[in-house]
From TrEMBL:
Xref: Pfam families: His_kinase
Keyword Transcription regulation: no
Cross-referenced InterPro entries: Bact_2-comp_sensor_kinase, HATPase_C_sf, Sig_transdc_His_kin_internal
Protein name: Histidine kinase
Key words of the record: Kinase, Membrane, Transferase, Transmembrane, Transmembrane helix
Gene3D superfamilies: Histidine kinase-like ATPase, C-terminal domain
Record's GO cellular component terms: membrane
Origin superkingdom: Bacteria
GO MF annotation: an example: phosphorelay sensor kinase activity
Transmembrane feature ranges: 12-33, 39-62, 74-99, 119-138
This protein's record includes keyword Transferase: yes
Domain Signal transduction histidine kinase internal region: 166-244
Amino acid sequence: MISKEFVLKIIVELLLHTIFWIVVLVCYTYFFGHNTDNINYVFSFSLFLMPVTIGTTYTVINHLIPKYLLKEKYLLFLLYCIYTIIISAFFITISFFYGLIFLSSLKLEGMAPMTRSPFFLFIAVYFVVFVASAFSLVRHNYKSNSANRELQHKVLETQLKLKEQELHYLKMQIHPHFLFNTLNTMYGFALKKSEETPEMILRLSNLLDYLLYQVDKPLVSLKQELDHIKDYVTLEKMRFNDTLDVNMNFENVDDSIHIAPMLLIPFVENSFKHGQIRNKKLSVYMKLKHINNVVHFSIQNSIYNSSENDSDGIGLSNIKKRLSSLYADNHELLISKDEQWHSVELKLNTSKTRNL
């Protein structure tokens, strides 16, 4: 079924074309009426010339331009333009004889001055064809640009959706290992009826709230991220008991500083997951400060054999991808290791976070 929008578009198109040709007829009458008072002759002659002009114009704009010029078939376009000129010149010449024979009774002086030479007729017709072709090219260019912009918009929209799905997938990979270990520890505490079980449940509840609800936000306060880390460390202390040595030094943190959620926790999780006990202790040291819109975060964990700790693990691999997506060139990440320590240093420009 034909829509109202389509019908309205056709009506508007016909109206615009009709107005254009009425304007052309008026211009013909004015141009050919120069130095003559015989308006009836001029109008009749202009009216007779209109079909030639209309036919030539629509041949060029509806056939030659879209099928040959816009498709870069220049030789064929030139060839068919020559054919069109020859045929239209023939009908223009007929128009000249129409004015000479039927309108002025074979008296050349009876013709309007501007119609006595086919040269002026050629100028008038081909000028209209040129103007109409220029409008047609501008219109094709506008439609092409609009189509390209719409296509680019769709491509960017698709890329954004894919990027959001990728980021969501990366976020969801971070905690399963930790949750599994924590639930096992909690199960052991419950069997022993430990007084620390309620505290562990509360800390885990806070972590799950952050993971399930806050993580979908584009940005969270840095303070929230650090509170999340503190809950995480508290749970790990309950798991490791006396074998864990953790030091956290967080400076210049307030609610006005925002980052993408779960950017720092993977570094912490990786330290506990891949850290190694040395001298009967797993040591993890963290520092954070915020200076001139830049977050300086560092974390190191103890190791005793660097060759066995070469893998970054899922956490660090994912966080590298997220940093590249969210912060692009606005971050610096340095990962190093020696015989005793695995170290991570991150600088993050919080003023240029991409809101994904």
